[in-house]
Amino acid sequence: MGVFTFVCRNSGDEWTGKSISSDLEASAGSTFDLQRKLVQAAYSADSSGGIQSSFSLVTPTSGVFQVIIGGASGGAFIGGGGGAAVAAPAGGAAPAAEAEKKEEKKEEEKEESDDDMGFSLFD
């Protein structure tokens, strides 16, 4: 698994991205094109699996781009904006969904039990 973090800067009409841990770098006319080039550069350095990426602007002329290669497939990113995102295990979302369903059922049961006040409309 490889994690590549790039510092991205805009100078005039060109965006550049440089890795903080290796010699990988790229430049392009837009952030979209820069992200594509940086993913290709990271994948050429480590092609061990699937690719996940996240881009976050820090200022209008700078940003952080992270590429994770070979992480847990089917996982979800957890993080604010993705600058320092962490991959969750593949089954991480299912237990949370089940817990929410159980809470909803408990709330529904409470609503139903409030109706029983010991007498009927027809008494």
UniProtKB/TrEMBL annotation:
Keywords: Ribonucleoprotein, Ribosomal protein. Residues 85-123 are annotated as: Disordered. Residues 98-108 have a biased composition (Basic and acidic residues). GO terms for cellular component: ribonucleoprotein complex; ribosome. GO terms for biological process: translational elongation. Residues 85-97 have a biased composition (Low complexity). Signal peptide: none annotated. GO terms for molecular function: structural constituent of ribosome. InterPro entries: Ribosomal_P1/P2, RPP3. HAMAP family: Ribosomal_L12_arch. Plays an important role in the elongation step of protein synthesis. Belongs to the eukaryotic ribosomal protein P1/P2 family. This is 60S acidic ribosomal protein P3. It comes from Morella rubra (Chinese bayberry).
